[in-house]
Fold each of these.
Amino acid sequence: MTATAESPAVGEVQAMLVTLRILRSKPEGSDDHAPGEQYWQEFQVEAHATDRVLDALHKIKWEQDGSLAFRRSCAHGVCGSDAMRINARNRLACKTLLKDLNPAKPIIVEPIKGLPVEKDLIVDMEPFFASYREIMPFLMTTGNAPTRERLQSPEERARFDDTTKCIMCAACTTSCPVFWTDGQYFGPQAIVGAHRFIFDSRDEGQWDRLEVLNDKAGVWKCRTAFNCTEACPRGIEVTKAISEVKKALTTGAI
Amino acid sequence: MTASSPEFVPGPKIKEPRIVSGRVRPGAEQWSWRFMRLSGPVLVVLILTHLFVNLMTGDGISQIDFAFVAGKWAAPLWQWWDFLMLALAMLHGGNGMRLLINDYAHRAWLNKTLHGALGVAVLGIIVLGSLVIWTFDPCPIDADPSLLPSFCEDVR
């Protein structure tokens, strides 16, 4: 007897019904909601346990409600566009599997906190980028540019290797309780961005950056809550990087 | 480029003046942070020793009365101990409250008012507490002798 279409294929992943509870808002408003008012809406989608939250969001947008707005680009955890608050933790929708979220319960999806919401899950990232610009995230050197590469040893590279992994998704900064209450704070990401250059042996602008971070809104606002380290989808030890910057400031040694 | 022109530096230039967010006193926050890290462990030692001496040694909790406190404050060691505990605890706690006010009170008048109230409370308690510690008289003239420490009999 040959295999029939009814028998389940070996290792087939069972489809299931998943509920997503999404915090929505429309800048133009609607019949039921004022412009910019935030409200919860539930969607049910059929999905596999191995699907990601982003797949479920796509299903909603493509099959149920095309007005649902969220950012995503590469969909593979590299571009850092789709950071959102999923079940009260900041994660990338494209790196979060439904089976890791207890799909028996509604999955709660909110925009990241602390930045102004523009629509649904899209926030205004400009304050976040402004902080990043303030720490001067570019190589600063003096003298003539060498005619060849600027070399450094593997040990010198290892000092800032962790912070080069940042994809600027804002998951860390918008998980920081200090940033929630005081938007003046540079936030973990800007300090990670500064760390990447401060501890780079080829860069000569360390003290310009350290001066910026020695500010009222700089590293001293950090209360080592460790939310940023837990939120980082790239596994960067953010709080450790911030502490290294603090240490450089208190000891004067880089 | 001529020899007299300024040295050419590659890379993007920073526009002056740079936007600086909320800088008031450079280095002040760093000293506040250092103070918290130093005073914290000192306070742990001061307070745990204080609790141990008062509650675990001798007769324990039942020994604490006016005479016991008077006896302790007759010694300069305990005067300084309690003064240090008072001052550090108030400054450490006050600085923590200052950070909280900076985090949550964004309206200028509210921020100023809360900081003012905090400063008055911290300084007031340090001054009043210091007065008690340093001007304490263990043997007041017209007090019930049974409440006074034993050495008061020699003073009379």
Note: The CA atoms of residues 134 and 212 of chain A lie 8 Å apart.
Amino acid sequence: MSSPEQQPTTLTDETALAAPRRDFVKGAIAIGAGLTAISAPIIAGATVFLDPLLRSKDTPADGQATDAASAGKPGYVRVASLDSLAKGEPKLFKVFSDCTDAWNCFHDVPVGGVFLKLIGPQQVIAWNSRCPHLGCSVETTAGGEGFLCPCHMGKFGPDGERINEISPRDLDQLDVDIVGNDVWVQFKNYRQGISDKVEIS
Amino acid sequence: MNSLLSWLDDRTGLVSVAKEFARWSIPSSQRLRHLLGWLVIFNFLVLLITGLFLSSTYSPSSQTAWESTFYIQHIMAGGWILRGLHHFASGSMVVLLAVFFLKIVFDGAYRAPREVTYLTTLGLILFTMGLAHTGYLLPWDQRGFAAADVFTNIAGSAPVIGPYLQQIIQGGNVKGHQTITRLHFLHVAVFPMLIFIFFVLHVALLKRLRERHPATATVPAKKLIRFWPDQLMTISLSSLVLIGVLFGLVYTFHGAHLFSAADPAEPYSAARPEWYFLFLFRFLRTPIVEHLGLAFGAIHVPTMIAVVILLFPLIGRSKAGYYFNIVFSCVVFAGIIGLTVMTLQEDAASKEYQAAYHQAEKQAERATELALAPAGIPVQGALTLLRTDPLLQGPKIYASRCATCHPWDGHDGLGHPIEGKGVAPDLANFGTRDWMKAVLTDFEVLFASTVNAKLDGEPIGDAFTGGDMAAWAKDHKDVLLKPENAGDLNALLEFFYAQTGRPDASLTNADLIAKGRDMIEFGELTNGEFETTCIDCHQIQPVGEDKALGSVGTAPVLTRYGSKEWLKAFIAKPGDKAHYGTTTNAMPDFETQLSADEMDLLVRWMTQDYYKAKPAEVKAVAAPAE
């Protein structure tokens, strides 16, 4: 423990104090180096774990519908033909699209559902079939007038407007494009449980 | 503060434990061994932490193991660093354990009263090797799959219980989902749990030893080193160096290698275990060991060595026994190192291994390229991508079916050099502008090797080299290569290239093609003309025209010559009268020899019709030909 430069002629208070001071430095190095060393793999692991937040936005987000090769406007998916709709009666259709799920690509698989309602010639309203409350699938009511969410009894009117306080907002309306006899929908999902309509991207 | 600490200590005893640590002293003679022990703990923690995080993405099944590893390696932020750390930390763990073990042997640290502690150390080493081995199988890439094969077969060679053991580990008669889930189970549950149990035992034994035989009682104070802060500083700084080295390795090698997804139906001749198991691999390949059987080399010999090592405490009671243990350990380690070095040297010198390894690397690159493609990995797994990829499968079909006669750029398509020149043209250039040019100006050279080809057992001799086309090329070489006619030759080549319909052929200049088209009919050049035009002998229906020029009979039909369709028809029946006819052709019909899928893969490979990562670059290469 004694180094050459500290060989005083007499034992003074200086040398008595030097040892604890040296120990303090050593202890600090020991703890500092040790924590640095062990935090390295933790940081490397946490980075990977937080990958969903760190990934750059230009790659399509996992689980989101990617644009299927189509004749319609970009971002639109063909859902049904006009013939299959009767005026004033909302009908549920599956939305098929390509879907990326981590390392896999699924082609032309169901990615969600939409209600289509014909309100006039060449005029269709579309709603995402997920309840804005907690995401259950909404059903049409027995009388055909309006919608009901079976999970928590959220009620919606014939125009998708909420009737009770269960859902924080009306059903999420989607943009529609009619090309000839085909109904195309810009399919999107929105965050649940909040009163604002915020797209999940 | 003090009251809080005493409250905590009262409830948990943590502060007392910390104080006990702080009071520790280590005899300076044990300092290195002590440090090694702590480095092993640190290294194990690195493996545990990185492994835990890897398991947050890794998915054990034969359709997702490679795919999820690929995802970690190539897509996730910092994934390759994490995987690289885990990989290289497994290597450093093996090295540290080896050094630690030797240090114990040299110190005789297995002698009374440490016999049982020594046994727990051996257990920890054994289970760590189990972790190391099961670990590199999990990506289910070519190497992991081959290693799993060896692992399960070794288990199967065990006396009596072997076949049952193999079935249990594999989860059935063949390797599949259950093999991966079971190896995964061993890797993340069984071995870590055993290590935990043995570690707790080990620590309890060490604690007891320290209490019963305190170093302070036997070793003079001068030769004692305080754990806090002196030894701990050494441990921490060494750990920092170790993790630095690991990061350095990860950076240098860009993480751990991921080979191509494994296809059980395909041979993999570059199979090698992780470097720390190379010795066993080489040992099993030694002729005498091979002769004595897998169980002898992989089970009996290691068991005998293990028994001797287990008996070290008994043997080492005498001075002579202690030296025997040292010599025995050194011999074993020298053998291991010797066999490892031998394998590395043999592999470096072996052309076959280098070619196989190169092929494996190429396939790994291709697998990555395909998996990164916009089409992505189908649900059936990456193997589907590989099996339907012309670039990967074409050369394999070529090597087995075509390369006996036709070399491919001097090799068999897979990189194995071909001695001599074969008996038919090298087809690496087939259908390119260079090929067309060689046909028109150097036919005799291009087809030179056909003089040795045999038709019904008789060499065909100069059927090609002395034929009409060879004569035409000889007669017209000078006029075609005249500087004034350079534009004409270019137009002619462009025309023929356009007929192939290759992915990049549509980029060629329409005016040039039209000019070339007129030349095959009228044979006019800027300076001179063809004595006989192409259509005097050949029939051809140029792309985009509805009438054929020339007539069938004297020479092969050139409609869409070099295209996929032409090639398929030609390979199916080369002796057809639309092709070489029965008198000159020496090539067998492949109509029934190749399945439709094989034919398609082969032809698409030969005409470069497959996914490429950067089409922009390919266009850039093709364009300057104008």
Note: Confidence is low (pLDDT under 50) at residues 616-626 of chain B.
Amino acid sequence: MNVTEMCAARREELLGMWVERFISSYPLQSAGFMRTSTDPFANPVGQTTRASLGVLFDAVIGLDASPRQVKAALDDLIRLRAVQDFTPSQAVGPLFLLKDILRTALLDPDSAEPKGRMGQSGREELPRARPSAGEILDGCFEAEARLDSLALLALDLYAADRERIFRMRVDEVKRAQSSLLRWAQRQGLSPEGSGNSCSGEGNA
Amino acid sequence: MPKMPTPAELLAATPAFPAKGWMDVKSEIRPGNYCYPAKPDTLLGLGFKRAHAWAPEDQDWNLPANWEDIMYNALKERLDKHRSLKVFMDVCVRCGACADKCHFFLGTNDPKNMPVLRAELLRSVYRKDFTLAGRLLGKVAGARRLDAGIIKEWYSYFYQCSECRRCSLYCPYGIDTAELTVLVREMLLELGLASNWIMDPVSNCNRTGNHLGIQPHAMKEIVEFLCDDIETITGIRIDPPFNEKGHEILFITPSGDYFADPGIYTFMGYLMLFHELGLDYTLSTYASEGGNFGSFVSFDVAKKLNAKMYAEAERLGSKWILGGECGHMWRVVNQYMATYNGPTPPNLEQPVSPITGTVFKNAAATKMVHIAEFTADLIHHDKLNLRPERNNHIITTWHDSCNPARGMGLLEEPRAVLRAVCNNFVEMPEHTIREETFCCGSGSGLNTEEIMDIRMRGGFPRANALRYVADKHNVNWMACVCALDRAALPPLTEYWVPEVTVSGLHELVANALVMKGEIPRTMDMRQEDLPFPDPEPEEPETQEPEEIGTGAATEPKSEEDA
């Protein structure tokens, strides 16, 4: 058994801990609701977080992952957190907390993988040999390096999201008076209408 | 020497959401979570005597010296005037049914955005001043004394409610949070505190007639530009009447349709439809804003702005009023207009469609018909020549705008129209549409750019449902029947579901509408190439004689044009 398999075997537990770290970034009174409601439309923040982290978790522990899917999942997560009143570090920070979770799970000799799982054949599988400490350490470093790549990608996405917001703010102002700008241009006025104002305000 | 913290320590050290009770958590006013204040001149012009200069981020908001008395009296007066307010203050049992129904709570997960807690921001003050238990027991009874911090909290949180009333739908007592929000904003107005994005349009509508304060001559010229565009697209020249007396119908639409993209395309759709029907109507530059910006902040201001619709209908001698695609305009019309400004002027009659003869009994009181009802009736009676294939590149969904859906039950009519003009229609998931529709996140005057982040998270539940149908059914269009939606949804989709275009209903009607004497259509209303342009003319009933034979296939035709 290698590190990827060790983590995959405890996926629900470890992923749950990671999701929990994200949800703890929300207020106490709200976090309970986010944990319990599983309807993606009634609890969109909780469920988006959970679904995205599921994909990212598999990628970090070294399962095969399509880059497109991983990026989409990270995009969903970061797009959400980029507008949620967090500082940038709060928005992406909980990504890093998976490191602690994996280290504790893998390096703590007491937290071995669950024994005697039922295999797909229906027969009880024998616990497979635990990798050596060196192998675990190597696997851990690899997982952490993959997580670092995700964090870098998250930085790109976060910055792009913020830039999009500011561009939208400008576009909205233009859109709100599109036909007025066109009118002003035909009158030979600058869009600012500095000369001859057509608005009631200017004539007031 | 201190050591660099780990990420876990760093995140733990940043001020997390406090574990204290909500009453002990003071609201923070910082850029991005407040609307810019209205200019004192604007408010003074509207008769708000306590208008003053203030800046939300300042410690001192320059409130009048006796502001506590003003607030006490303001609340007392409203408790006497609105029995609903008194009931809403007393009846809530804090069951929490509303809590997770608010899109702002779902998007922000901030407990003060739960409708119950938002109402509690006012209710706690009410308890202190107006209930015995609150007076005697104070905090134990959920009461607190009003202070300047609470005023700031109100300005922040009551401007994070879009008055969509989704929570009211689920409240076992039917507590109308929208009404509470309006009343608190009204009380804040008494201290001279209001948002610029709302009060500027209020002032413009009050003074000039439309929300941008465009004067009649400019407004008429702008409509002429739109008619130029219609001519380019259809080959038909339309010259809509303005302020003319003696027409059967006065048409009033939100002024966003005249000036804002993409509302203008819907407006062009109205004009084309009316032209095709030969409707006897007039536009008005005075009653040129159907939407009622006053309804966001004050019942009195709403009444004043609403009055001009009947005043203009009376002056022009119209028989009834046809209203354009708008949201809150229709809640005001359905719920408040008769009380505000009824009875209707004597020249107004129960609306009857001149094309189908349908009597709009639902409009017996207000004499106002929503254009979705009007067009659905036309389609039902097969009075329109439609070619929905022109919209075949569109896979659309329908966004039920809060006010028409929840405020007047306009659910089936727009869908009937949409199905008739567009072959591909997909509903968003159950519990996110119809009466349970999610708000755009920018209603009730929150449609201002400085709180774009709040709007994005408030609109996330809507976008999340849209995203689902976009991923699953390749939906690339969202139609709606509200001018604020047409302004608010484009940034929302740009952020969350960029592949989706937002439009009004009658933009799609206009695409599909086959007009007598029109040229073969190669462009949609936005003058973008139609992927499925009209074939060589062959339906004899839609062609003028001289055009037969000249209408070549689309490509040669466009070459000729070039």
Note: Residues 84 and 118 of chain A are 42 Å apart (CA to CA).
